[in-house]
Amino acid sequence: MEIGIKSGSPEKQRSACVVAGVFEHRKPSLAAEIIDQASGGYLADILRRGDMDGKPGSTLLLHNVPGVLCERVLLVGLGKEREFRDRQYRDAVRDAIKTLSDTGVAEATLYLADIPVKKRDLVWNIEQAVTVAEETLYRFEQMKSKPEESRKSLRKLTLAVPRRGELAIGEAAAARGKAISAGMKLAKDLGNLPGNICTPAYLADQARTLAKDTGISIEVLEQTDIEKLGMGSFLSVAKGSDEPPRFIVLHYKGGDKKQKPVVLVGKGITFDSGGISIKPAPEMDEMKYDMCGAASVLGALRAVADLKLPINVTGLIPTCENMPNGRANKPGDVVTSMSGQTIEVLNTDAEGRLILCDALTYAEKLDPACVVDIATLTGACVIALGHVATGLLSNDDGLARELLHAGEEASDRCWQLPLWDDYAEQLKSNFADMANIGGRAGGTITAAVFLSKFAKKYDWAHLDIAGTAWKSGKDKGSTGRPVPLLVHFLARRAGAA
């Protein structure tokens, strides 16, 4: 979809549709007031009759409004003015885009970004409008023989800013929104592909395509290379599948040569059966989403490259399947990680940490500024935080604050959990340096404590996206999170926030 930025009065827009907001109790936004004045009170009459009450989720499409140049006017309910915050704004944009799409409008001018949102500015309003619009229009139909018939899709969206002097600001914000949306689309497309298509080899090929398209350098290590590195923990998971593993290394070099890279590590389990500790059958199909951490790293790198951020970023993606063949890990097996530390595998379904720990050890050789891993790691995180916030744990409070702030900026929030030494007691093993699980209590925390044992030589943070990487039910599908959080984090690191 083409995105444009312009200033100008709404009644003078020669557009297929102009979108304006109405608060509860039939209070028009500034744009709606201007249209009403130009129409001789036409909107006021409609509001007075009760056709639009301004409640959240309500829309009203008007044709041939007198005194305006546009073909249609779409009124969108904003809810209570005193409660108009982030969620209400995003919902209003989503309602507008859905209505425009359902009615087959090809282009529209949106007068919502100029409505004040508490504690937000025009930059945030524009960026969010773009990402919400693209998210609303997203469809995954690659695997259907005949795509579902739909009306003509919205091909151009123009976002109005209050003053001409804000055009440049609006264009910059829209550009970031487009870059984030492109990264999210890549992550969603990869996540939504079935496990028989999106294998470790396929994921590596997609990484190569990304590298070719953006100028990012790439190295794909195959099984023999991984063996030479001594990644025994990673390989112990991979050996349970007929699909060979890959270790993908990507380098985006937008900063000074001497600048230490920010390293992103993404869990790339392209299908997780649970291995010998096999998962229950219901909803096992959703385990194709166990590579969403890897997908988010690729999506973030795509956005960073599009924005040409002056920063060095390295992406590390260990990718394999977790399957229960005759060579698979068995409960009680002891494996040796790249770090030399031994691990008793008490549960083969706690495999994500087994591949991530070797990637975290590999990160040491890069002399990183910091390392952030992203993983659909624990069901416990879903229990703790639901599907709203990503779990965050870190060995550095400053890094944690950066990520928390980035999440707030991006409306892609995370929540910090403690990483105290007390929890390490649960990982003790009689037969190895540590066990790979610590029991049900504090499962998200003990998983992070396990990873922290391999991240002692640098500032590190862990993002558990088990509750936020995809949706279930009728809206089943990948969300593209936490690409917005990661892009905002990297932009701030680059001084481009």
Quick description:
The chain is of the alpha/beta class. The chain folds into 2 domains: 2-161, 3-Layer(aba) Sandwich (Leucine Aminopeptidase, subunit E, domain 1); 181-493, 3-Layer(aba) Sandwich (Aminopeptidase).
Number of separate strands: 21
Q: Helices and strands: which structural class?
A: alpha/beta
Proportion of β residues? 15-25%
Overall number of structural domains: 2
SS element count, helices: 14
Give the CATH superfamily of the largest domain.
Zn peptidases
CATH class of the largest domain: Alpha Beta
How much helix, percentage-wise, in residues? Answer: 25-40%
Distance between the termini: 24 Å
CATH topology of the largest domain, what is it called? Aminopeptidase
**Rg estimate, integer Å:** 24 Å
Shape: elongated
What does the average pLDDT come to? 96
**Largest β sheet strand count, sense and barrel closure:** 9 strands, mixed
CATH architecture type of the largest domain: 3-Layer(aba) Sandwich
Which consecutive residue ranges, at least 5 long each, have pLDDT under 50?
A: none
Give a verbal description of the structure:
The chain is built from 14 helices and 21 strands. The protein has helices at residues 30-38, 42-49, 86-103, 122-137, 167-192, 200-214, 223-229, 232-238, 292-307, 352-363, 379-385, 397-410, 443-452, 483-493; strands spanning 2-7, 18-23, 27-28, 59-63, 72-79, 107-111, 156-161, 217-221, 246-253, 262-266, 268-272, 312-322, 333-336, 342-345, 370-375, 390-394, 414-416, 434-435, 460-464, 470-471, 477-478. The model has no long low-confidence stretch (mean pLDDT 96). The strands form 4 sheets. Strands 8, 9, 10, 11, 12, 15, 16, 17 and 19 form a 9-stranded mixed sheet that branches. Strands 1, 2, 3, 4, 5, 6 and 7 form a 7-stranded mixed sheet that branches. Strands 13-14-18 form a 3-stranded mixed sheet, with helices on one face. Helix 5 packs antiparallel against helix 9 (292-307). Helix 4 links the parallel strand 6 (107-111) and strand 7 (156-161). It starts with a strand and ends with a helix. It folds into 2 domains: 2-161, Leucine Aminopeptidase, subunit E, domain 1 (3-Layer(aba) Sandwich), CATH 3.40.220; 181-493, Aminopeptidase, CATH 3.40.630. It is α/β, with parallel strands linked by helices.
